[in-house]
Amino acid sequence: MVSSPVTATVELTHKAATQVRAMLILWINANAATFPLAQYGSGYSHPPLGETVQGIPFNVSLHRWAVPQASPLSTRFWLNQHYSGGRDDLEPARLIRAQKVCQDKFPKLANWKRSDNARSVLVLEENDFQTNHQLVADTMALAENGRDDRPDEVFLVTTMFEPWSVSCLRRSGKSYYDDGERFHKFAPDTLTRLTKRGR
């Protein structure tokens, strides 16, 4: 697992983020075998965000665990967004992140909806098995409250494991709690790629 600050790429352009990702992959490939292998469930074997990598504008850390072969985490590599603040700061930080999503995406979707007379859909992605979908739904409801450019539908897609799963956060006036459309499994190879960007 590679760990980075939760706000690591917030201010980066897509081009800069792509370059940082490429440098991070090179660093992981060159150094992964040098990091200690800890027993799964024993916590981190060394401090989080303790590594400074040339060309990467934030600290990172790499962690390895001996995971039972039967575990779905066996042979898996995943990203972890490390939050260094206290519990009292976590929900305000989550709300700020959700408000930024609204600020960045809602006007674009609203313009597209008006120009094409279309139904607007916002799809959020998470690839951290510790993400709480209910908290994401609650935070998005707070962030978009009072906005007149809200998309018609909001979904959260989990891409940590295959098959992926999708949960509806809001649709047709119904909330995460009303709709009940949660954790529907689907194979990512059934999707049609619309851009040249990696997933």
Summarize the structure in short:
The chain has 199 residues and is α/β, with parallel strands linked by helices. 32% of the residues lie in helices and 21% in strands. The longest helix is centred in the middle third of the chain and has 30 residues, at 87-116.
The share of residues in helices is 25-40%
Q: Helix count?
A: 4
Structural class comes to alpha/beta
Q: What integer is the average pLDDT?
A: 85
**Biggest β-sheet description:** 5 strands, mixed
Secondary structure: number of strands: 10
Order of helix and strand elements from N to C terminus: EHEEEEHEHEEEHE
Shape: globular
Q: Flag low-confidence runs.
A: none
Distance between the termini: 18 Å
- C-alpha Rg, in Å? 19 Å
How many domains? The number is: 2
How much β-strand is present in the residues? Answer: 15-25%
Characterise the protein shown here.
With 199 residues, the chain is an alpha/beta fold. Helices cover 32% and strands 21% of the residues. The protein has four helices and ten strands; from the N terminus they run βαββββαβαβββαβ. The relative contact order is 0.11. The model has no long low-confidence stretch (mean pLDDT 85).
